[in-house]
């Protein structure tokens, strides 16, 4: 069952179409990565989902309703920007304000401070927090209502390696509890480690939606071969229609031909092969391939 | 609505903005009241009449002009601060009804502004009456009049703060809206009030100042002597109307904008 549903969503800022007839679904109990290059329309999409930005057309709904119409919005937590804090307000007071506005019991404050590792910073003013600490505070605020659905926009921004590892654990834990998480990120490796599903957009349009494994499979696998006569094998492979890229150490990376084809061709030409292996595309490779296919440079 | 109101009061209590601005307003009021009382009845430039006269005592007790402007500034900061610190996102996530948020902010601003006005009025009254008593002057103003000036400063500051909340929603840039408040009080009302005295009582700052008994106001925009004050309910009505008008215009325009 889809918890989050985006249907033909479009948003224009003047002459710029930020989101262009975007449609996707997020299933219950999954961690879904929301990927795209800078300016792809991820933040605008998430803000439309949360009623902060008005779409030109289309719908973005949570549990079948617009965010503003949800009977209990406390069950949807969101982190949209780490800078949304009054610098003079303490960490605890920031959470007190959010509790008061959302009608959440104050004992939750200690629970989320503990969960986000901010227990020792409760009395600190937000203006003195590091970017990573601000991100944690944003997550703490999002968790106040013990939400069933979490919408996170680049929550890893500003986190140090330990913080990134902590975030990974937190997301896994939330998914393990059956919560639905939609997390946008440009940290592709992080998404690969925490998400079961990915949605990729570029220039406001959907490029891919499905399991992470399908994303990497969709963009193909490469064969890496090591031979002391790399130039000859490269020419032969190119002549057979495969794409060849020369790597360091007499190695070639071939796409468009499998290991059997490469080995057979090398044997037929009498070319020695010291090593041959299949290399699955990484999520990053897949992402770059997908966005490049859509015509975006670099 | 109650939740949002509670949150808005909590926001005011958990930063130093409101208390700092109130402290500044009281300090400036105390300074003006002290200078005016100390020089009252002398031949120094801009000195008010003697505290032994009703006009002199009124001027000393009504040294609340700066506090009225400070209340309007406080109102602007309550709304524009959400955009300065980018806290509007969280506010509208918790309460997507933007009209409700604006209403709650206007009410919170009115209460905070009224407290600021009350503190300033109490300060000016204490200083003015203290100087008069120290000099052995009889009380030349009825107690009811003194109370009316205090109530006028309190209600006037509260309603100006509510109007400021509307202005801060309309002009979201904090520095710009604060400059606009001062420009309005020191330039627009001064020019319009000076040239069209019949219109002056209907201008927000002038209406609030006259409710508080302010005439010269010790450095604040002077009220031309030809201006006839409205009765207190009329003055309050003008201010409430200004607050509602600003909020309505903001609600129909800027408040509906995307939060990006």
Unreliable stretches of chain A, pLDDT < 50, 5 or more residues? Answer: none
Roughly what percent helix of chain A?
A: 25-40%
User: On the 0-100 scale, what is the average pLDDT of chain A?
Assistant: 88
Number of helices of chain A: 10
Q: Into which percent range does the helicity of residues of chain B fall?
A: over 70%
Overall number of domains of chain A: 2
Largest sheet properties of chain A = 6 strands, mixed
Give the percentage of residues in beta strands of chain B. under 5%
Number of individual domains of chain B: 1
The H/E string of chain B reads: HHHHHHHHHH
* Number of discrete helical segments of chain B: 10
Overall geometry of chain B comes to elongated
CATH architecture of the largest domain in chain A: 3-Layer(aba) Sandwich
Extended strand count of chain B: 0
Largest sheet of chain B: none
Under CATH, the homologous superfamily of the largest domain in chain A reads P-loop containing nucleotide triphosphate hydrolases
Furnish the topology, listing elements before pairings.
The complex is a heterodimer of chains A (about 300) and B (about 260).
Chain A: E1 2-13, E2 16-27, E3 31-35, H1 42-49, E4 57-62, E5 76-79, H2 91-102, H3 107-115, H4 131-143, E6 149-153, H5 161-176, E7 180-185, H6 188-194, E8 197-202, E9 205-211, H7 212-218, E10 221-226, H8 230-239, E11 243-247, E12 251-255, H9 259-268, E13 275-280, H10 283-293
Parallel strand pairs in A: 3-7, 3-8, 5-6, 6-7
Antiparallel strand pairs in A: 1-2, 1-4, 8-9, 10-12, 10-13, 11-12
Chain B: H1 2-13, H2 17-39, H3 54-61, H4 65-84, H5 88-94, H6 98-134, H7 143-170, H8 174-195, H9 204-211, H10 232-252
């Amino acid at each position: 069952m889809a918890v989050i549903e985006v249907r033909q969503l479009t948003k224009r800022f003047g002459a710029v179409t930020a989101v262009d007839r975007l449609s996707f679904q997020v299933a219950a109990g999954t961690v879904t990565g929301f990927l795209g290059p800078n300016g792809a329309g991820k933040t605008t999409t998430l803000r439309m989902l949360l009623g902060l930005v008005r779409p030109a057309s289309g719908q973005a709904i949570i549990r079948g309703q617009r965010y503003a119409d949800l009977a209990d919005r406390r069950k949807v937590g969101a982190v949209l920007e780490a800078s949304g804090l009054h610098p003079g307000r303490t960490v605890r007071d920031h959470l007190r304000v959010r509790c008061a506005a959302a009608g959440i019991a104050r004992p939750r404050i200690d629970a989320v401070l503990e969960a986000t590792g901010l227990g020792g910073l409760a009395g600190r003013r937000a203006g003195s927090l590091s970017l990573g600490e601000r991100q944690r505070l944003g997550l703490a605020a999002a968790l106040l209502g013990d939400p069933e659905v979490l919408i996170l926009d680049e929550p890893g921004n500003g986190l140090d390696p330990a913080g990134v590892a902590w975030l990974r654990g937190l997301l896994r834990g939330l998914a393990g509890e059956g919560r639905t998480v939609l997390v946008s990120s440009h940290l592709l490796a992080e998404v690969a480690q925490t998400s079961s599903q990915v949605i990729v957009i570029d220039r406001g349009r959907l490029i891919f939606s499905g399991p992470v494994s399908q994303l990497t499979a969709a963009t193909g696998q490469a064969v890496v071969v090591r031979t002391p006569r790399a130039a000859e094998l490269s020419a032969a492979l190119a002549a057979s229609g495969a794409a060849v890229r020369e790597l360091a150490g007499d190695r070639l990376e071939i796409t468009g031909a499998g290991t059997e084809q490469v080995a057979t061709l090398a044997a037929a030409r009498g070319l020695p092969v010291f090593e041959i292996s299949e290399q699955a595309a990484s999520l990053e490779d897949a992402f770059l391939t997908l966005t490049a296919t859509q015509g975006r440079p670099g | 609505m109650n939740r949002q109101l509670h949150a808005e009061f909590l926001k005011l209590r958990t930063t130093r903005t409101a208390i700092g601005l109130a402290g500044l307003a009281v300090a400036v009021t105390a300074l003006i009241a002290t200078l005016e009382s100390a020089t009252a009845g002398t031949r120094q430039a801009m000195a008010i009449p003697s505290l032994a006269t009703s006009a002199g005592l009124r001027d000393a007790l009504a040294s609340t002009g700066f506090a009225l402007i400070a209340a309007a500034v406080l109102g602007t900061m309550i709304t524009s601060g959400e955009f300065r610190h980018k806290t509007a996102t969280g506010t509208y996530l918790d309460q997507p009804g933007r009209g409700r948020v604006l209403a709650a902010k206007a009410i919170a601003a009115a209460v905070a502004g009224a407290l600021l006005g009350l503190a300033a009025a109490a300060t000016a009254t204490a200083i003015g009456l203290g100087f008069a008593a120290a000099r052995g002057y009889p009380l030349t103003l009825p107690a009811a009049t003194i109370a009316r000036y205090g109530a006028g400063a309190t209600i006037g500051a509260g309603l100006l703060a509510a109007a400021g909340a509307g202005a801060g929603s309309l002009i979201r840039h904090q520095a710009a809206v604060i400059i606009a408040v001062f420009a309005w009080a020191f330039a627009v009302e001064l020019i319009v009030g000076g040239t069209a005295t019949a219109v002056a009582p209907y201008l927000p700052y002038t209406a609030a100042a006259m409710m508080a008994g302010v005439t010269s106001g010790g450095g604040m925009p002077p009220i031309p002597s030809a201006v006839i004050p409205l009765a207190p309910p009329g003055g309050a009505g003008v201010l409430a109307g200004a607050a509602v008008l600003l909020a309505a215009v903001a609600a129909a325009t800027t408040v509906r904008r995307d939060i990006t």
